[in-house]
Design brief:
Number of helices: 2
Order of helices and strands: EEHEEEHEEEE
Strand content: 25-35%
Distance between the termini: 64 Å
Structural class: alpha+beta
Length: about 110
């Protein structure tokens, strides 16, 4: 008799972290699901505009063109309509999957 191991008991390869593409620059970075998009971008040498880093000032607002993000809690910085139009706050947004952001004010850190 052959005994099968349930699929859930087999070791699973760890999925790679999501990637982020910033347009119009074409810059890419690894976007860890446990780190905000703003922090992941900075770690990769990409500076997105920011100020408060808590989702209230809206300095970092940009548009999510593709992919999915999550917030750990509802943030007052975006209206329902803005969320439906794809606007996100990278300072408090965490990637769920690969994303494409329209962030024309993004800059590359020198050094």
């Amino acid at each position: 008799m052959v005994t099968a191991t349930p699929c859930c008991a087999l070791p699973r390869p760890e999925a790679p972290p999501p990637s982020a593409l910033v347009l119009p620059s074409g810059w890419c970075f690894v976007a860890s699901p446990d780190v905000t998009l703003l922090q992941s971008a900075r770690a990769a040498g990409i500076r997105l505009p920011s100020s408060c880093r808590n989702g209230t000032c809206r300095a970092c607002i940009c548009q999510l063109l593709q992919g999915e993000i999550r917030y750990r809690m509802e943030w007052p910085g975006l209206s329902r309509e803005e969320k439906l139009e794809g606007w996100v706050l990278p300072c408090v947004a965490y990637p769920v999957a690969d994303i494409v952001l329209a962030a024309p004010a993004a800059e590359r850190n020198e050094g």
